[in-house]
Amino acid sequence: MPQRNLSQAVLQIVFSFFLGLVVVAFVGIALNTFYPEPATSFELNDAAAWDRWRVVTGIWLLICATVVMVASMLIRTERIPVITNGILLGGLFTMIYAVSMSLSASNDWPRLAVVAGALVVTVGVAYWKFAVRKTPTPTPLAASPDGAPVDPGLVARVDALEHRLDGLRQALTD
């Protein structure tokens, strides 16, 4: 691999990773803006309120992570893989944030529900990304008179080259 392609690939990986971090930061800040932490004071130190907030935040983060991951899958990856991979990483990082937020709560069943949801969504998106959305299979090649496969694109390029050579031959003989 030439040095330029290697540096371009490394830059794309770094950019995708950074975009993923920005996505999770955006989701986290947006969620905290609309659903802030419980008010803390010395008189009000209610562990149940904190547990409830952590579980609800985990659920919202799970929903946001699912939306982000599905959105990244709907974008055509052939055209802009760096951006779609970065958004997918952002969804994955948000999923990690959701699981860690729910694990910090002491409620057993709600924690299990959030982690189970994260598992289902992550496996589903991975299956969709890596098993279902494979690269399109090439079209079968036409057969030549002797039965050998022929690439139609190659035939068109050879025809164009022959046309140019005929034009060049006519220009040189006149």
Number of domains: 2
Task: Give the helix tally.
Answer: 5
What are the low-pLDDT stretches, counting only 5+ consecutive residues below 50? Answer: none
DSSP strand tally? 2
Strand order of the largest sheet: 1-2
Q: Indicate the structural class.
A: mainly alpha
Radius of gyration: 27 Å
The gross shape turns out to be elongated
Q: Order of SSEs, N→C? A: HHHHEEH
For this entry, what is the oligomeric state of its chains? single chain
Sheet having the most strands: 2 strands, antiparallel
Helix content: over 70%
How far is the first residue's CA from the last residue's CA?
A: 47 Å
Explain the overall architecture:
- The protein is mainly alpha-helical.
- It has 2 domains: about 5-130; about 140-174, no CATH class.
- About 75% of the residues lie in helices and about 0% in strands.
- It contains 5 helices and 2 strands.
- A hairpin with a 5-residue loop joins strand 1 (about 140-145) and strand 2.
- The protein is elongated, with a radius of gyration of 27 Å.
- About 25% of the residues are buried.
- The mean pLDDT is about 85.
